[in-house]
Amino acid sequence: MPKSPVSPDFIPTIKRRDFITKSSILTIGFLFSRHLGWSRSLKPVGYPVHNIPVNKNLDLLWVKSLYQRGKPTIYLKSRNELKYIGMPVGGLHAGTVYLGGDGRLWLWGIYNESEEPKNEGIDPKTVLWNDGNTVRKIRSRDGASYVEPAIAENKRVLEQGFAVRILYKGKVFIKELNENHWDEVSFQATYPTAIVQYTDHHLPVSIILTGYSPFIPMDADNSSLPATILRIEVKNLSSEKIEVSLIGWMENGASKLSAKKGDGKKVNSVMPSEKFKGIFSEFNFSKNGLFTATDSGTTSFAILNPKAGVHTAFNTWPVTDAGFTSGFSQNSEMEAPEKLIGALFTSKTLVGGASMKEDFIISRHFNNPNDKLKELVKDAKEGYYYGTKFKNAGEVTEYIASHFDQLSAQTELWQRTWNDSTLPHWFLERTFVNIGTLATANTYRFASGRFWGWEGVGACAGTCTHVWQYAQSMGRIFPELERILRQNVDLGVGFRPDSGAIIFRAENESRPAIDGQAGTILRFYREHQMSANDDFLKTNWQNIKKAMQFMLAQDKNGDGMTDTPMENTLDAVWEGEIAWIVGLCIAAARAGQAMAEDMGDADFSLVCKTYLEKGRKNMEEQLFNGEYFIHKPDAAQGRKKLGSYNTCHIDQVYGQSWAHQVGLPRVLDKEKTLSALRSLWKYNFTMDVGPYIKTHQGGRPYAVSGEGGMVMNTNPHNEDKPYGENESWQLGYFHECMSGFEHQVAAHMMAEGMVDQSLTMTRAIHDRHHAAKRNPYNEIECSDHYARAMASYGTFISACGFEYHGPKGYMAFDPKITPENFKAPFTSAEGWGTFKQSQTAGKQLNTIEIIYGKLRLRTFAIKAAKGMVIKNVLAKMNGKSHEVSFRKEEDRYIIDFKSDLELTPLQKLELILS
């Protein structure tokens, strides 16, 4: 990143444009010279000096560039950016299948091996890491894949690929779709689809591979198919006629890992159909009992071209002319453990400018969870959810082929909708990409319908409440899954109806966690909001109320500040009154008040309101040190146990952050909250973590020297023993950069108007995961594809200033980036679409368009341009006027429709404010 000699530590009260245009370098230098005194203090005995610079030394032009729309990120072979890329393309909860940078599939984590501690990560290994002071051994769950990312070429479990044969000017060219065969290969990262393009400077053809699995927000079932779709398009760029042949091959994956010689035979058989030509792959056992192995199942490989040729046993290596002709239609067999590979091929003559397109489907069906998983969760014993829909991989293929136009069109429609925005492409990529965690071996959906997940792939069981409550993606993209988790687990197998406690790992634990309890209450409110009606809340209200009462009861001294020692997400039981836990419980109390109001439960609403008001007053008076919020030690225990005490903790105002995510009124004073966020920026964020982790030992490598990030907990005033008398192993967490926590802070900063800081933090995470260094699709914490990283979607929510309450028919926007010309996607209870806003002198136009499903709307809230006083609101849907009334509340206008509006695709609502 380019740097300037002196640059600002952004002041949130100064608008970015005004700051950049009005501030002189001399003024900027003066602003910060007075803040440097603390860093000159002598190092205290026993604890390293705080060494994060106040001046972030950011180039203003670089910061300005973060706002630019730009283009989708493209990774190139010529820049050595392809080897780590692994985009999940295998369907939600159906194992891990990666699309590599050159279009080949790899990893194939489909054989039910992810378990603790056997196979914790994507590349389960221990590596050596030099943290700048010592060389340490790093386990998979501690970030080994961050230090040494998995390389696609080393993890190709199954043989799979494509090749083209081109007859041009009398010469035959045969090239595999493999980066070694092309002058250039580019990978365009626009999840849930990716586009791989192959270039040979001597061939007049354009070859593009598009890879994805059906991914349709609000349609969890059709997004959970255990299959990958690979579309290949070849276009003749010349004016001459050329002959093009295309072949794809796929290894029989049945019993790939366990079958030994003498166990039986691999069998490939042709799947005839009017819609496709396919190969069904299975294993015929010669012994009983082997069919229960975790890799016992079926795969299939198909092309949506019933006239295509077939090789049920393909062994032409390297691919030659013979591979593109003379297929066989009969079955083929192969003794284990030899490979049996099937291939499909087709040819076409292309005149100048013409093109050909073929869609391939790779399906699998391995419905045997491993024994460890069955021990952890009883639902696993009956197999997976997709196993209730399909008997084998062939049925998966038949379903996709029969519904291909719908599945493909709706996936591509979402991809276009998500990217059709004024927000920067890089920002859209980073805030959305972690939803791909659901399409890895980190999550499962069992035959019962239950959703279940690790914290990271194969590590830390039980859909842990104090981790998963940070994740904002699933609740907005697949709200059905979150409702299932709330109702069947948090209020089901993990619930204690006698006390109201929610066990933080359900049947995999016996204790509640206070942050998990509070965060789950906020999730109850979000899931209510993301419902079309109030059935979810009505059905579960009595148990939600019990969960609320349990949380409120953890305030032993009645001051509205939780003080019962309980487990928290930093794997410790802290004593005292802790700002981030107190604030989170206050926010949960406000959510409880809102739910009670929606239920007409006035008495309980008052209980929650009283707790909120008392807790907020005391937290702001007792836990704010003038700069940031702290941890007040227990009166009896003092600092004997581990805690954050007077240090600057990353989650200190997390409760207010959560409140923004669900459109609650403020739960903490705005100025104190902004001061806390500025302190986090000042004391915890650095563009190079190297000097800090070199002196503050023990943390895991989720950001390394030369990379930027926000450190979890810092000691800015250089106290001795800042984290208490007992420096337990959990102290190492404080020196790390964990992206899920960072995303939470970035989302909060965005919501509070600290846009420069929010974008800078998000970009630091984005750059840490650039394909030149590691897999852009895998944000690592405790193992791979860590669930907390799905907090990234919260920053997108905040950038839109989006609020929604389905049962009330309420929606609101407050764009934080280019509000004068803004466009972004949104999701609702029953559909998704696009919101647009344009502001000109004396006029503002807001447009809501539904693209999929439907939207019921009764009330809409929006801010007007600065200085604009609204005197008239005109509402039109497809040109027809609708009667509205409007009023101003604080700094925004509330527009009420005389009757509910229902928007469906091709309908557009326009609101003209003047």
UniProtKB/TrEMBL annotation:
Residues 515-792 form the Glycosyl-hydrolase family 116 catalytic region domain. Pfam families: DUF608, Glyco_hydr_116N. One of its GO terms (molecular function) is hydrolase activity, hydrolyzing O-glycosyl compounds. InterPro entries: 6-hairpin_glycosidase_sf, 6hp_glycosidase-like_sf, GH116_catalytic, GH116_N, Non-lysos_glucosylceramidase. It comes from the Bacteria. Residues 86-406 form the Glycosyl-hydrolase family 116 N-terminal domain. SUPFAM superfamilies: Six-hairpin glycosidases. GO terms for biological process: carbohydrate metabolic process. This is Glycosyl-hydrolase family 116 catalytic region domain-containing protein. The lineage of its organism: Bacteria, Pseudomonadati, Bacteroidota, Cytophagia, Cytophagales.
